[in-house]
Amino acid sequence: MPALRELFTSAGFEDVRTYVQSGNLVLSSDASAARLARDSERLLADRLGLSVAVIVRTREELAEVVRRNPLREVAVNPKRYQVSFLSAEPSRELVERCAAVAAPQERVVAIGREIYAWHPEGVARSRLWARLAGQDLGVAATARNWTTVTTLLAMVDE
């Protein structure tokens, strides 16, 4: 993560900070979210040889994700509450396919470009999690647990 932070700092981004070892970056930029994603993907490809999709949310968008929290009544363990951040809104069919494989105690809610998923028994054997983490979503996606989501928002607000 220090190398990732240095890479983005040397590319001219400001206030670059990282969180845990999963590629979470918080930074300041005047670029649009779409341009920032494209520029970040190009930077990672050119400098590190990584071909990865980059999902960007502005401070306001991330705050809205936290404010919505549609599963707050049931998602009592933040490590088992996941938000999948998508590059585009999922199709109704995709959301229905995800809901169809959810175990009875799991919950899934899609709002905009996010899918909130509650896995009370964990993700290890969750068919819902396997679907959300799979390659057949039709859009680029990355998931973070609720602790990470709220920590990233706190970092932005520091």
Describe this structure in words.
The protein has 158 residues and is of the alpha+beta class. Helix content is 40%, strand content 20%. The protein has a four-stranded antiparallel sheet. The chain is globular and about 50 Å long. The chain has two domains: 2-48, Alpha-Beta Plaits (2-Layer Sandwich); 63-156.
Q: Sheet bearing the most strands, described?
A: 4 strands, antiparallel
Instruction: Tell how many strands the DSSP assignment holds.
Output: 6
How much helix, percentage-wise, in residues? 25-40%
* Element pattern in H and E: HEEHHEHEEHEH
**How many helical elements?**
6
Radius of gyration: 16 Å
Q: What global shape is seen?
A: globular
Low-confidence stretches: none
Report, as a whole number of angstroms, the end-to-end distance: 20 Å
Number of domains: 2
| Biggest β-sheet: strands ordered side by side in the sheet | 4-5-3-6
Structural class: alpha+beta
**Overall pLDDT confidence:** 94
Strand proportion, as a percent range, falls in 15-25%
